Amino acid sequence: xxxxxxxxxxIRTEFRKNYDQRARQKNFRDQLDSGDDDATPNPQSERxxxxxxxxxxxxxxxxxxxxxAAGFAIxxxxxxxxxxxxxxxxxxxxxxxxxxxxxxxxxxxxxxLLKSLATDLQNVVVTxxxxxxxxxxxxxxxxxxxxxxxxVICRTSRKRQQVLVANVDQVVIVAxxxxxxxxxxxxxxxxxxxxxxxxxxxxxxxxxxxVDPVELQPAIAVWGQLGYQVVLLSVARGWxxxxxxxxxxxxxxxxxxxxxxxxxxxLNAIEPGLDLKVSTVSDESQKGRHTTTxxxxxxxxxxxxxxxxxxxxxxxxxxxxxxxxxxFFRDLRPYVSDCQFPDCTHTHEQQCAVKAAVxxxxxxxxxxxxxxxIFSGE
Length: 378
Ligand code: GDP
Ligand code: ZN
What we know:
The protein is of the alpha/beta class. 31% of the residues lie in helices and 19% in strands. It has 15 helices and 13 strands. The chain has helices at residues 2-20, 26-33, 50-56, 66-69, 112-116, 184-197, 217-225, 241-248, 263-270, 281-284, 310-313, 322-325, 333-336, 353-359, 365-375; strands at 84-91, 96-99, 105-110, 130-135, 140-146, 153-156, 161-165, 170-176, 200-206, 229-232, 252-256, 296-299, 305-308. The strands form three sheets. A six-stranded mixed sheet has the order 10-9-8-11-13-12, with helices on both faces. Strands 1-2-3-5-4 form a five-stranded mixed barrel. It has a two-stranded antiparallel sheet with strand order 6-7. Strand 6 and strand 7 form a beta hairpin. Helix 6 packs across helix 15. It is globular. Zinc ion binds at residues 339, 344, 346, 349, 352-354.
């Protein structure tokens, strides 16, 4: 299984070359090369407009390389009864905070051998990892072992894949009905990236107090038919916040979405006491308002966690190769096998079952347009 995944990753490399021709990753790669585990992308790329923005910061999700996916599940001789298992809730460049099931927190260094095992990988230990630690002094411990990872979100640069967080269940795409206006095609992009990770997407449309919900129906109906969970809410009015909380409790959720859609407001409403800063108009013009540069797991009072990291809040995909995009559109998938050419791109081909389905109104034209945009890298 793992071997197959690696193959997939290799194909992706070719696509990255495409982007690299535009040479926009320099700064980011420098950051990575500097060995800073907490390197965060350029905050200005948070706006998802146009190709340039997209390629400047390519936070992506995807299947980890084989070594990553397998974790570092090496049974070490010196794991003994004094050792504890725990969860990494935060990683600074050299130390990690690990919480054990009884609620204690340990500041941990990483065992030297473990570090050396992962020379060409970005992170030996990432937020969300399940680990085995050996307590030393008070609240101090050493991480001896990292369990195999599932549900990873990665950020990829040319040669390296940096896992931002491991062992998460779902990704909440936060959008707003207005201010900023709803961009269904952008949500489709998020969906494609999340499909590629195998995580469960939840579409959450905030600020419905600002519009007539009927306006949102066409897009929402299509996503709903595809089996995606869609929650319309208004944090300002308290509408449906409870509904979203139910979907989050007991799970580990990454929250993503454009700036200004109300992510901080929403998280504060879900978990009072979190006290995340809500942007004001004057903040909008300031860059770098997120002061934290590290990922962390924020526990929810009912169980589960919210993953908060500046990198993930703004995460984008764009690591799916064009040929894969169709496979991540749930609605296109049933038609592709009927196309005349096995490598049909569903764009210019004459005998294309996908295009025929759009013409017959079996496939939503807006979704098809999203497909074409993503396929062509727009
Ligand atoms: P973030 O950048 O995604 O974290 O967004 P913020 O939580 O900082 O919110 C951005 C702005 O949207 C703030 O001015 C909020 O007061 C406002 N806002 C958040 N939720 C709602 C809502 O449900 N309705 C309306 N009208 N405004 C909201
Ligand atoms: Zn086709």
